[in-house]
Each structure stands twice: as C-alpha cells, then as structure tokens.
Amino acid sequence: MRLQIIGEHVKRISKEDALFIERLIGVDADAIIRFRDFISHHYEKTDYEIIFDICRNHIPQLKTKIDDYLSNKQIP
Asked: Burial of 51 by CB count in 10 Å (0-12 exposed, 13-18 middle, 19+ buried)?
C-alpha cells in the first residue's frame, strides 16, 4: 500500500511539472508511476520478490535522494 501511495504522490507532482522529480533528484518518475499503476490494477500478477527487492534496495535510495534534496533546498 505504501508503494502505491508513493506512486500516487509522484503522479500528482508529475502532473504539475513533468520533469520535476527527474531534474531535482534524478529519479525516473514514469517508472514509479507505471509501477504504481501495475500494483494497483494487476496485483494478482505481482512478483513478491520484486516488491521485496524494491523495498529493500530502491526505496532507501529514493529516500536518501529526497532527504539530500530537502537538506540542500534553499528556503526563502
């Protein structure tokens, strides 16, 4: 469910500015959105080893990139 929520937030941000996520944190937003759509609509075909790999390896990297962006962001 949390992966779906991450994907939904990325989808909303991308509607406002299609390249925002890629430009600022270097992540392919389309891949995250497609993954969200897949697990939301085709969950019966989901490979749980892939989900485990994403949670273990990719989510921590995404979190680090977002944390780095937020810590370096200039707040007026």
From this structure: middle
Pair 65, 27: CB distance under 8 Å: yes
Among residues 18, 24, 55, the alpha carbon closest in space to that of 39 is found at: 55
Q: Give the pLDDT confidence of 51-71 residue by residue, as tens digits.
A: 899 999 989 988 888 888 788
| Residue 10 burial (C-beta neighbours within 10 Å; 0-12, 13-18, 19+) | buried
Q: Note the pTM of the prediction, 2 decimals.
A: 0.71
User: DSSP readout, 7-62?
Assistant: HHHHHHHHHH-TTHHHHHH---HHHHHHHHHHHHH-GGG--HHHHHHIIIIIHHHH
